[in-house]
C-alpha cells in the first residue's frame, strides 16, 4: 500500500515537474522573444538615428552650397558693374583716329603708344565679352542654384516630415523598453513561481522515490526469503523423492543382481547385523572414483580411424597449399625485384639521355652557361626526386627556384624539349611558352623550333601573341569577326606568301 501511494505521489510529482518544465520553457521562450524584439527595436532606432544624422549633414551641405552660390552671384554682379564702368570710361576711338590723321606728321613717335592703347582696348573688349559670357553663365548658374534651392526646400520639408515621423516612432520606441521591462519582470516572476513549483515537485519526487526505494527493498527482502523457503521446500521434497527413488532403484538392482531382497543382503554379505557397518563416505568415494574411471574411458568410437585418415588428408592438402603459396610469394618477389631492377636500369638510362639533351639545349637557348639534372636519392632511383641546377652565362650554378622568371621559363623549355627529343611525338602543342621571354631569347627559341621541325618527325603547334614568333612560323591561324556575332577562321601560308613575293619581285 505504501509503495502504491508512493507511486501515485511519484506520478503526480512527475506530472507537476513536467508541467513546471514546460512552463519554464515557455517562459524562457517568451523572454527570448522579448529580448529579440527589443534588439530589433534598438537596431531600428539606431538606423533611424543614423538616417536622421545623414539627412541633417546633407541639409547642412546643401545650405552651405547655396550660400556659396549667392556669394558667387554677388561677386559676379560687382565684376559686371566694374566692367561696364570701365567700358564707358574708354575714350572715343574715332576722334583719336582723326587726331592721329591730322597729327601724323608731327606725332609719329606716339604710334607705339597708340598701338599699345589699341591693344589695351581690344583686351578690354575681349575681357568685357568674356565677362558678359561669365555673367550669363553666372545668371544661368544662379537660376540653377535657385531651382536647386527650391528642390532643397522641398527636400527639407520632406525631411522635416520624416523627422517628425521618426521622433514619433522614437517616442513610441522609448515607451517600448518600459513595456518590455514590465513583461520581463512578469516573466521573471512566473519563472520564479515555476522554479518554486519545480523545487516542491522535486522534493516530493525525492521523498516518494526514497520511500519507494525502501518499500522495494523490503519487498525484495520478503520475496528473497519466500523464494529461499520455497527453494528449501522444493529441495527437501526433491531429496525425499530422490531418496525414495534411490531406495527403489537399489532394491531393484539388488533384486536383479543378487536375486534377493535387501533384508537378505546382510546374510549374503556375511555382515553381522549387530556389528557396525563400514564407513558410508569411504564406500561412496570409492564408488564415485570407479564410476569416474569408467566414464573417463568414454564410449567406443567406431569411425575413429576413418576420421583420422580424413584429418591427415586435409593436413597434407593444407601443407601442399602452403608450400604452393610460399613458392608463389617467392616468385612474385623475384618478379617484383626483376621489374624494379629493369625499371631502375631503364630510368637511369633515360635520365642520362634526357640530361644530355637538356644540357645541350640549355647551352643553345642561353648562348652559353651550363645546366644539369640530379636525383635527390641515389640509392633508389624509383623513389628519387628530381632537382634542376642551372648556370646562365655570367651566373653561378644554382637551383632553378633562384633564377628569374624568364630564366626559369627558358630552363623549363630546355627540359621539356630534352624529354621530347628522348621520345618524340607526332604533334607538340606549345601554349604561350614565349610569353615571359625577351626578344633575344624568343629568337633563340624560334631557331631551335625551326631546327627541330626540319627533321619532319614532329609538327609544332604554337599558341602565341608574340610578333617574332608569328613572323618565324610557316602558317598562321587566326579568328576574325567580319560581321557582328559571326566568327571566321583565317589561315595564312607564310612560305607560299614569301614565294609569291619573290616571284613578283622577279617579274618586276
In short:
The chain has 508 residues and is mainly alpha-helical. The protein has 10 helices and 7 strands.
* SSE pattern, N- to C-terminal: HHHHHHEEEHEHEHEEH
Q: Give the overall form.
A: flat
Distance N to C terminus = 134 Å
In which order are the strands of the major sheet placed? 1-2-3
Low-confidence stretches: 504-508
- The Cα radius of gyration reads 60 Å
How would you describe the overall organization of this protein?
- The protein has helices spanning 2-89, 93-102, 111-258, 265-268, 280-297, 304-366, 405-422, 439-453, 467-472, 494-507; strands at residues 370-375, 386-391, 398-399, 427-431, 459-463, 475-483, 486-493.
- It is mainly alpha-helical and 508 residues long.
- A hairpin with a 2-residue loop joins strand 6 and strand 7.
- The longest helix is centred in the middle third of the chain and has 148 residues, at 111-258.
Quick tags:
3-stranded antiparallel beta sheet, about 500 residues, two-stranded parallel ribbon, about 75% helix, single chain
Fold topology:
Layout: H1 2-89, H2 93-102, H3 111-258, H4 265-268, H5 280-297, H6 304-366, E1 370-375, E2 386-391, E3 398-399, H7 405-422, E4 427-431, H8 439-453, E5 459-463, H9 467-472, E6 475-483, E7 486-493, H10 494-507
Parallel strand pairs: 4-5
Antiparallel strand pairs: 1-2, 2-3, 6-7
Helix pairs in contact: 1-3, 6-7, 6-8
